[in-house]
Design brief:
Number of strands: 0
Distance between the termini: 45 Å
Shape: globular
Helix content: 40-55%
Number of domains: 2
Largest sheet: none
Bound molecules: fe (ii) ion
Radius of gyration: 21 Å
Strand content: under 5%
Length: 404
């Protein structure tokens, strides 16, 4: 089968490829994404030599080139690309490059969230010497096997990391002043139709595979944490009803708004701040060592979704969107109020009962989620509130040209 590519740069025409259309390779944004996309397409490299893992170190961790290269690597674990052999998923050279890209991205996330690297020396160790197997997040944990199942974690092993996590989660429950300063608040109070469409296009990069990044963590959990996370995922996947799969409800929303519901349709339009939010989930989900961060991210997402969904319903109503667009968000108001409790008490609680040393990683996942969502919000609102307003996408939607 021939490799398919997205359309060359220019305004996006609304296509009706249909929601089952196979994803196509996006357009490269620099040497790293060129190297990945050219390899998958079976093309000779664009330059004298393809970019390699060594080139990743100097890339902007939040930039378009690195984020698109990562996105394309990760998509091989989801739906792949039309005409690209599925076995690229486990190509050693591509995995080596992906690992180098992840290192740059994760280092930036840890630095910018004030999180400790897992291999950093524990400052409480004499002369900074590493303990064998120490994670640098606190005192070595008591092996889970030596504690009866369900017994609370001894405080001396819990350390400040657990208290810090509780503080961070409590902070998420405190609603910020609802003055329309966030993206959903802006759309509710002052947003225009074209901005609503842009928001829907951005978010499609995640919502068309909603819950999939979190499913990767299931085999890495046990007992209470596993049961609880699967219960949440069961809801995300429609609770036994294929017509209620949340990703499908989002495709309905896109159709209702007159947008393209096909998987990956707006990847070329999505700038780095949007891709980064999804790459973070994929990275946390695919790396067993980051299972704590994945759980922290999932909890943060569920805690903050219901209030944002309420604002989005009002935005859709004010702007005259249809019932299929509305349903995606009304579904999340009720569901995520329950999910946040399950995530916090049973998934995080269960995970840390088994593996208390992961508390700092859970906090990292919560903070990284906040950091990247804040960066995305700043990007969106910066574009929409500019004078004159400009598109927040890399390519404007032709059906929705920005109007001042
Ligand atoms: Fe959902
Ligand atoms: Fe949810």
């Amino acid at each position: 089968m021939a490799v398919e590519h997205s359309a060359p740069p220019g305004p996006i025409r609304l296509r009706t490829r249909g929601r089952d259309a196979a994803p196509v390779l996006p357009q490269p944004r620099g040497p790293l994404s060129h190297a990945v996309i050219d390899a998958l397409a079976g093309r000779p490299p664009a330059g004298a030599a393809p970019a390699t893992a060594g080139d990743a170190a100097s890339a902007d961790p939040y930039g378009d080139d690195l984020q698109l290269a990562l996105h394309v690597c990760y998509e091989l674990h989801y739906r792949g690309f039309s005409g690209v052999a599925p076995d690229w998923e486990w190509d050693p050279e591509l995995l080596r490059l992906r690992g180098a890209l992840e290192t740059v991205f994760l280092d930036a996330l840890r630095t910018d969230t004030g999180s400790t690297r897992p291999d950093a020396p524990d400052p409480r160790d004499a002369a900074g010497a590493r303990r064998p197997g120490g994670r640098g997040h606190g005192r070595p944990p008591e092996p889970a096997a030596q504690r009866p199942a369900g017994e609370p974690v001894p405080p001396e092993n819990d350390g400040g990391a657990r208290a810090e996590l509780e503080n961070v989660l409590d902070g998420l429950l405190v609603e910020p002043a609802d003055d329309g300063t966030g993206v959903a608040g802006h759309l509710r109070d002052a947003g225009q139709w074209w901005q609503l469409l842009e928001h829907a296009a951005h978010r499609s990069v995640y919502h068309l595979k909603e819950a999939d990044p979190h499913a990767f963590v299931i085999p890495r959990l046990r007992g209470r944490a596993k049961t609880a996370l699967v219960a949440v995922e069961h809801d995300e996947y429609g609770g036994g009803r294929p017509d209620r799969i949340h990703a499908g409800l989002y495709a309905d929303l896109l159709e209702d708004l007159g947008l393209d519901p096909s998987y990956g349709a707006y990847v070329d339009a999505a700038p780095a701040p949007m891709l980064a939010t999804v790459n973070m989930m994929s990275c946390f989900g695919l790396r067993r060592s980051l299972r704590g961060a994945l759980v922290g991210h999932f909890a943060a997402a569920e805690i903050t979704t219901a209030p944002a969904a309420r604002r989005m319903v009002r935005a859709l109503d004010r702007l005259g969107a249809g019932p299929r667009a509305r349903l995606f968000y009304t579904e999340h108001i009720e569901a995520d109020a329950v999910h946040e409790q399950v995530l916090r008490h049973d998934v995080i609680g269960g995970l840390l009962a088994d593996e208390p040393e992961l508390a700092a990683d859970v906090t990292f996942g919560v903070r990284a989620t906040g950091l990247l969502e804040d960066r995305l919000a700043a990007h969106l609102l910066g574009a929409w509130r500019a004078r004159p307003p400009r598109t927040s996408l890399r390519r404007p939607l032709t059906a929705a040209p920005p109007r001042g």
